[in-house]
Amino acid sequence: MNEDSKTRYSIKHVSELTGVLGVTLRAWERRYGLLKPERNEQGHRLYTPEDVQRIRTIVAWLNQGVAISKVRPLLDAQAQPEDYSEPLPEMHDILSALDAQDEERAQRLLEQTMKAYPHQTLLDQIVTPLEFELAAMPSPQRDLAMALWRLIVIRCCAPLMRKPLPRNAPECRVLALDWQAESLAWWTALGEYLRGTRVHLMPLPQPDAETLSALCAQDRLPLYMVGHQPLREDVLVFIRQLHKGGRQVIPLGALVFWLASRTESVT
Predict the structure, then answer these.
(1) What total number of domains does the chain contain?
(2) Do 34 and 58 touch, CB atoms closer than 8 A?
(3) Among 54, 4, 3, which residue's Cα sits nearest to residue 29?
(4) Cis previous bond, 81, omega within 30
(5) What is the pLDDT of residue 266?
(6) How far apart are CA 169 and CA 86, in angstroms?
């Protein structure tokens, strides 16, 4: 008998192998009928190597921009993943709810979407294009929608980060340098937490270089700096000095472009 025919994996092991959370695997099974794991005598799910490969194929389709609701026919047809350029319908649904200031619907849709998609796929295919759409809205419509988005992101992400991690887990800091950057800061923090990193998340809107220096002097942890609004020149200089001094600094949001443009202007 082939050894693979006897191999079975727990849901925790499958999550480690594929990077797909257990809550998402269960949603794929119950809501979308994409998986049919076996059960042991205790009722625990058991996955075969074929199930693991199927999960990886599902992830490949999702990463190409296919909506989770449209994956099953493609799997049944044994089609090969290809690029779909159309935005996912979940993105438009959430955007519509935010635009209408429908708080309950927006939160419900985001919670459902977070269960249906792996974290990185969610960021690439839904969150990032959604935030671009929000930024393109006229004011004050934009400010209201972004404020609601920030609120529901915190509500949806925070409960997923409550379980304590081991004391010897790696650590990092995530700084939100303006209020518009807080949603991306939370997504970044959640991604690190799901990878087993203890995250110190802090809103630090429009800091001066002295405040930032005092915070950074506390430790040498990797530092995510998330910013969407222009920062003072002395702060940009300090961030570059941190990086040149060997500190692991990961800029995110529009901060990436401001740091790059300053480098070009200096050279």
Answers:
(1) 3
(2) yes
(3) 54
(4) no
(5) 38
(6) 39
Backbone angles phi, psi at 191, to 5 degrees: -60, -45
In the block, tokens 């058991």 appear at 46
Side-chain half-sphere CA neighbours of 157 within 13 A = 25
Q: Does residue 262 have a pLDDT over 70? A: no
Q: What's the angle, vertex CA 222, arms to CA 224 and CA 155, rounded to 5?
A: 45
Q: Residue holding tokens 């999702």?
A: 62
pLDDT tens track for 143-187? 999 999 999 999 999 999 999 999 999 999 999 999 989 999 999
Residues with Cβ within 8 Å of residue 222, at least 6 apart in sequence: 171, 172, 173, 248, 249, 250
Q: Are residues 149 and 124 in the same domain?
A: yes
Name the residue range of residue 35's domain.
3-76
Token output for 94: 């959430």
Give the model confidence (pLDDT) of 208-257 as tens digits: 999 999 999 999 999 999 998 889 899 999 999 998 999 999 999 888 88
- In this structure, are residues 94 and 152 in contact, taking their beta carbons and an 8 Å threshold? no
- Enter the tokens of residue 243: 């990086």
Q: Is 83 part of any domain?
A: no
Tell me if the pTM is above 0.90: no
